[in-house]
Amino acid sequence: MGRKLVVLHVDGVSADSLEQGLGEGDMPFVQHLINSEGYEVLRYRCGVPSTTPFAQAGILYGDNSEIPSFRWWDRERRVLVQFGAGSTFEKVADKYFDGCMPLTNDGACIAACYPAGAADDFGIAYQDRTYGQQSKSRSAAAVLVPYLANPVHLGDWVWQTVAMVGRTARDYATARGEGRHPARPYVVTDVVEEIFVHHLTRYAVQKAMREGFSPIYAGFYAFDETAHAFGPGDRSAQRALKHVDHTVRRIASARGDRYEMVLLSDHGHVDTIPFAAASGRPLGAVLAQMLPGFRVQEMKGKAYGPPDDLATGRLHVTMSGGLAHLYFADRGRRMGYRELAAQHPGLVPSLQRLEQVGLVMARDGDEDLFWSGPVQLRGAALTAALSRYEDAQILATQLSRLNSFEASGDVIVFGAFVGDKQVNFENQAGGHGSIGGAQLHPFLLAKREWGIDTSAVLGAHELHPILSDLRDRLAT
Ligand SMILES: [Zn+2]
To answer: Which domains, from first to last, does the chain contain?
Structure first.
């Protein structure tokens, strides 16, 4: 008798955070899985960018090429591609995943960035209820109404909402009182995210199991939101891990003997210092000074420099945590470094000298070019510079892949580390998307008897064949 598979994606939990949560007793159920059900924590590398659209595409489709960031500029369609509220991925979706065999083909894919061939998404897409409205999707109301009609759910939800709003307000006040700077926009969304979507997703997974879907893939984002707001090591993030543990317990107790369960994360988090706080000005303002006459538009941010009709050119900047892509927006194709240096000789030298910038990358033909501090990095100097972040050989391979994307910026900028904190181009207390530290090292929690080895996985797309194989082995 074949078995079915349910995969729980807990966003933003690094292998280090998981191990810390286990060590401190915040995840008693996951500890039980390890002690009594034969599970083990397997570390893997998500690749660069360490961000959800990239990692999740890799896991679900086995192909995450041309996804350079959480948001990016599509030069050909002239679209800012982004996920979450106001997702625009559908405007370029036809360019992606051609010929891929999705992990959740004919299964259920709940609260994910992509439909991944699923027969049903239970009306819940990634922080957004519109991209989920594909032909195979049931309406969100079809899940929501029965959920809320149950007085137990409603009571649970109302009670937890009140409790969470209270706790988050207290955490916010405490953090401010201690002179820290929690990221305010995240504080409200993480409460809503935490309680509502998390509960609803958990309910949808239980429903999908009752209806016999396989495989089921479901995304839980409460930890990620909380870590952005307060930092991954904060007590709020620790509490979010307890909540994740509770969710895993609830789903596991409904799995019966028909389902096997896998828990995984897509990337980790690092503590951050916002660029604007570190340099005194936002990145867009700094770039506008480096490119006189240019209109510099931070995508999902402010614009700097002369107004559009007076500008001599336009630069678009997309920022995802400690990673920024710079696009000369009037061009339909990516610019090689030789041309860039001829047109704007001062740009890369000025960027590489910024204290808040750890690494600058561009491309000349097939060659990857790197700069840091006063010098261009080559040979042993490049190896030494990269090994500050990760195994230099592995990181060079991951960066080279990102640098090969046509969708990447003409110049790619990585935030510097100041102590154990990374300069982050967005206003967050915890971030990811870039290189260095726990953000590159997520985890997979799987049964030892399945014989899974992730030690050679250098990118999330390499999990796809491993999980597809597990799905097929379980089914027979
Ligand atoms: Zn995130």
So the answer is: 4-63+100-269+436-475 (3.40.720.10), 273-428 (no CATH)
